[in-house]
Amino acid sequence: MSPARRRAALLLIAVMSVNASYTVLIPFVPELQQRAGADPTVIALTFALFAAAKTLSQPLGGLWVDRWRPGHVAFVAQLVAAVGIVITAVARDPQTLLAGRVCWGLGEGLVTPALYAGMGLLCRRYGLSSSRLIGNFGTAAMAGFLIGPLVTGVAAPLGLEALFFAGAAVTAVTAFGLFQAIPRSGEEEPEEAEADAAPTADGAGAGSAGPWWMWVLALGALDLFANVIYSAFEPMLPLYLSAGRDGSVRGTISVVFAVGLATFALFTWALGRYTERLRLMTLIRAGMAAMALGLAGLTLSAEVAPVAASFVLCMAGSAVLYLTARRGLIELRSAMSRQGKAFGLFGFIGDSGNVIGPIIGVALFGWTGATSFLLLGVLCVVALVGLAVASGRFRGARATEATGTTETTEAQVEAQETSPRPS
């Protein structure tokens, strides 16, 4: 295996490990209630504080990445996460349980910008396709979500402590793997990386199209939008599928979400290989359109087949937006010397969608029922119109800038031709 493939594989394994942390705890909720004396409020805080610690610590991790090295930050962050896993495993009271989850989330948040910065370093050092690596990254992330409950279900007879201790050991080993996988920043940076550039509608670098942080905010908002839509689905679809039905619909809900998540993983992998030459704005429009159509389709029927088909369309659109936002950030040349800050800010904005999405979903569904899907679809259409307007203005500004530059150049040539020449 070549050094590039070996390092990329280690990075993707770490991504799976990090994302498995989100779901590995779910089957053990009843046992945690008994062991730590946790009431429903504490259980809710167990998940909420983990997500909050991960979200809030990403900008800090980004600053650290720029001041130190991504591989070193990833190494320390994974060790912090391992400590949090151990504390969670041995918790016998609510305070210790919550402290363990906060420590766990802190480690996961610190490592996230290091993973993204490491991905950018690998692309530049070895000439890897950013689209392809991001596609693999997204597939690995989704595999982690699916592996968490699967591993827990298979290894449940070992007990919570043994399983979590094993998980902490795997996380520690992953720390050493990331230390080896992520190149040292600065060794492979091209000299022009410091140029003031930003991604245009076709994903290439542009001239003075705005400061780097404005593009990070825009791409983060795109990721926020996608995360809000998906995380709103998590409470909305079970409520929608169970409304007016007798008996349990757990199997139906599981099938719908499994098909949707598998679609996301497959589309992210495929998009990374076959859309590298497509412009970023084209991909964004396609993703928004697919989500709008899927959301509209959800209002037609609450039967399993049409709901699953519409959800698949939504997840395909979500995969397009996931890939586009990260590809745009990696190709943002003006942020190459500050990728830690860029990915830290991007992750903070995007992950905030996972916090507010369920609240928006429950509120909308309780207020309007199935019409809530249509309202979210209208939001996608509004975003599409806004993108069209913004894209048109951007092209106009770029054309004006190019025209002004041409006029200046012609004026300079004319002045040179009419100026006196030395004899």
TrEMBL record:
Instruction: Extract the GO molecular function terms from the UniProt entry.
Output: transmembrane transporter activity
Where does the source fall among the domains of life?
A: Bacteria
List GO terms (cellular component aspect): plasma membrane
Subcellular localization? Cell membrane
Q: How does it sit in the membrane?
A: Multi-pass membrane protein
**Alphabetized InterPro entries for the sequence:** MFS, MFS_dom, MFS_trans_sf, MFS_Transporters
Keywords per UniProt: Cell membrane, Membrane, Transmembrane, Transmembrane helix, Transport
Using the UniProt record, give the first listed, main subcellular location: membrane
Membrane-crossing residue ranges in chain numbering = 36-53, 73-92, 98-122, 134-156, 162-182, 212-233, 253-271, 283-301, 307-325, 345-367, 373-390
Major facilitator superfamily (MFS) profile domain span = 7-395
Annotated stretches, region: Disordered: 399-423
PANTHER family listed in its UniProt record: INTEGRAL MEMBRANE TRANSPORT PROTEIN, RESISTANCE PROTEIN MDTM, PUTATIVE-RELATED-RELATED
**What protein name is recorded for this chain?**
MFS transporter
- What species was this sequence derived from? Microbispora cellulosiformans
